[in-house]
Every structure is written in C-alpha cells, then in structure tokens.
Amino acid sequence: MPFDGVVLSALKKELISELVDGKVERIYQPNQFEVNLYIYKLGKIKKLIISANPSLPRIYITERQKKNPEVAPNFCMILRKNLLGARLIGIYQEGLERILKIEFETKSELGDTEVKYLIFELMGRHSNIFLVDSNYKIIDAIKRLSFEDSPRPILPGVKYTLPPVLTKKNPIEVSFDEFVSFFKSSNKSPENILTDNLSGISKQFANEVILRAQVFEKSLENPDIIKRIFDSLKELLYCIVEKGEILPTLYTEKGNVVDFYVIDLKCFSSFPKKHFSSLNLCIDEYYFKKEQYTVFIEKRQYLQKVIEQNIKKLSQKYEQNIQKIQEAENADLYRKYGDLILANLYQIGKTNDDFVEVIDYYSEDLSTIKIPLEKDKDLKQNAERYYKLYNKLKKAEEYAKAEIAEIERELEFLQSLEALLEKSQEIEDLLSIEEELEKEGYINTQAENAGQQKKKENQKSKPHHFISSDGFDIYVGRNNLQNDFLTLRFASSHDIWLHTQKIPGSHVIIRTNNKEVPQTTLIEAALLASYFSKAKHSTKVPVDYTFVKYVKKPPKTKPGFVIYDNFKTIIVDSPENIDNFNKVE
Q1: Contact of 48 with 59, CB cutoff 8 Å
Q2: What is the pLDDT of residue 459?
Q3: Of 11, 24, 365, 457, which has the highest C-beta tally within 10 A?
C-alpha cells in the first residue's frame, strides 16, 4: 500500500499550506465511503477528497469533478450541519501512524465558538472517517460499528479512542537498543521485521531502507549490519519527515500505474516513472488512473460475461437446430410410407395389425416393406399421418437451416467483439463495444439516460494508426463500427484491406495513395491483423488481403461483416506484442 505514514507526513505539510485558514464552502458525499470538502482560501476553492474505501483509502486535493447523488446521504447531511462555514485551523498526524486529524473552528447555534475534528484513519479495510466534538465524543462516522460488532464501538455519543492495534514503535523516536531487540530471535526478513515493529512503515519504504543500507546478507546477527539498517532508516526519515526533501514519483508498467512514493525509490528503478512538483498532484494522478483501471477491468469483465452468455445461448440453439435437421432425415421415409399405403390401399383391405406389409414400388426388385400403423386409424388416416409428419419435419428442417445461418452470423459477430475486447486498452474501446451490443439488443438500454448517451458519444475512440517501415499509413479498427467506417467510408477503392482468414478480428487498411505497396508493408499490416484477432500469439496465421473495391457489405448484416473476392493470402506468425511498430498517438 503506497499510502503509509511517511507519505501521510509529507502530505500533511502540503495540506497545511493549501488549506489552513480556509473556509468550508460545500460538502458532498459522492459514494458510500467518500466525502469531498470544498475549502475556500485566498480567492480559490480547493477540493479535498477523503475516502475510506476499503481497497483504496486516501486523502488529497484534486480539481477533478465527480457526479454527486441528488439526495445527500445521512453522514453528508451531518457534516454539512456541523462544518459548513467552519474555518479549518489545523491538521495533525498521530506520530507516524496513518491517522490524520483536521481541526475546525465553528459557531454554535448561540454564536459561541466551538472546535470540532474530522479524524481520518487510513487502515485498509478498517479505514473510517469520524466527526467528533471538542471532547472527542463521536458525532457520527461514515462507518458505524456497534458494541456487538467490535470491542471499539463507533457510534454517535461514544468517546473516540485510538485503534487498539497501535502498539508499534514510532520509527523517529525508536532507540538503537530497541531497534536491535527487534532482530533478536527473529527468522523473518529484515523488511518484515521493520514493518512488524515500526509504525507508518510500508513494505516499499522498508525495502528502500534495506537497499540503501546495502544489506544483502541473510544472517542479521552482526551488529554492524543492524547499525547500517538503523542509520539508513534514520537518514531517510530525517530527509523526508524533518527536512521535507521529497520528490513525488509515480511508477507505471505497460501503461498502468503500479505505485507512487514521496521519493524516487531505488527498489523501483526498473519501472518507468514520472516526477511531480507536488505530492498532491502525484497522488491525484495515481488514484485517478487507478480508478480508471478498476472501472476498465469491471467494464471489460461485464462485457465479457455478456458476450460469453450470448455465445453459450446461441451455441445451445445451434445444437438444437442441428438435432432438428438430423430428425428430418426420416422425412423422406415418412412420405414414402404414405405413398406406399395409398398405392396398395385397395390390395390391403381392412387391417387391425400394428403394421402392414406392402410392395415397395421404390425398390428395384419390388420387394415388400413393413410399415408401422396406428390401430385406431384406418389406412387413409395412417397415410395422412405420415404426410403430416413429412411436412412437419421438412418445415422444421427449412426453419432450422435458416436459423443456423442466422446463428452463425450472430456467433461470428460476437466472436469478433470477443477478439476486439481482448485487445481493448482504453475505456473508450469498451464503450464502443458496449454500444454495438446495445444496438444489436444484447444489452438492455432502457435505463440509459440522455446524459450517459451524450458522454458515450463524446468518448468515441479513434482507430489505431501505425506508420509502416516504408512510410505507409496503416489503420486498425478497435471495434466493428470502426471496422465498417474504415472499410466502407474512410478507405479509397485502391487502398488495401486485410483480415485474418475465417478468424474474428479487426479490419486493417493500408493507405496506398495510388502507390505500389512494398512487401515489407504488407507483412507488417498482416502482422497487425493477426495481432488484433482471435489468432493472437499463434503461428502460421492466414491473412487475406485485397483492394478495398473488392470488399462489399451485404444489406442488413451486422457491423463488421463483409464479403470479398480477388484476394491473396499471407501466412504470418502473430507477434507477442506490437512495441516495435511505429504507432501514431
């Protein structure tokens, strides 16, 4: 967890500079765990986010806006009643613990000056936000706990107390003798020894302490080694906490945020990084991207579930229709039975048997054949029954074949979306796929309001754009709507169109500008077509290519579906990644 006591200590100084002596103008609670305080100071309004989210507890200043509920939750109403118009007069930290106390000066109903505190505990899943009075009596908390639920009840009227687990030593105050005692009779790693015994120390900070102490030995019995760790700890804390020497740094991997810290960590030297002029800006970007990624993953999982459920449903329907076609194999036999009964009608006479044996006029040797009968029906009625069975099975077969053709088109559409979903990297890609599913009726759109629709329209993504090694523009659709746009509207008739052969994937366009396209560009475009398809990471992937003028879209077909002719095929091994391709941002 990046938000440890050391980070909080550095952040506290920025919050003091930005917020102290400011006035609370507005208060909102956008969700179950988060409150937003708008603080007015020196002609500017600063938005302070305090979130007790169990997975992402945090506090920082941001300019980003969120949608607030029309009806404010209970806790928000209590905060408004007690803190609106209040002056923020102090921000304090409990040692190096992840506990921050914000002091407000308010006026009572009688006009008397009162002090109230907003206490924020960043304790993982136990994180909480408390509003207490000057005597530390709880006015309310964003998460209440009864006497039955916890040995530390959190209820209005109860005295606020610090969490009972705060038994670790303050690393700023710990002596060397106390520090040595942590290492005695311990088989744990030095990093774990630090985090287990010192408050406000995260795994990242502990790793940095050990790395800067240049400790690589497994045995920690040598006092000199422990002294090096102790000195490294004290030096880091002095620079960060006492002197305020920080360099807020954000670490990423493959475009996703990994971590942040108040200094540039040596233990993260292999990660791409970005430095910030303030810790608030660093934290703001980290949690914004973290939330974006969480939303992205949840949206992708939802869409994947929708697609998989519909593929499963269609597959079952496909099997049912195959079974109907197999059953219709007996249809010609039933018609034959009807014909033979009528052909032999006057030779048979009346019968009460379960079957009748007649001459088979369809056989070359005119042999006899036994035809099953229903005793309660005469011969004409049995013949009519067989004709009805024949007609029923033939109609079912005809309907099943038509259904199978439609099912195959739907499966091809869904599988193409599934391939595109696997390659989606941005929330805009997912919104486009969701839009396709909505238009085709796979997702219920009744609950979608005009504002959400407008947001989607504003967030439409652009196709991937690459430059080949020969300087030709190559475009790749991110979704089926883009595939149609690229092929049918964007590309000219002499541009080259590529697609994996009989494999769901993206449409790829090479802009030729009426020039001859070199083989190297064709291969690069084919590699992109294989990468943005269900054949990713496969070998010997067939990719068809032809001029756009030979690509047609049949009427009333689903997005992305086309037919083509006059094509050639390239066989390529799909790349593991496309890092070496020249992508235009």
Answers
A1: yes
A2: 47
A3: 11
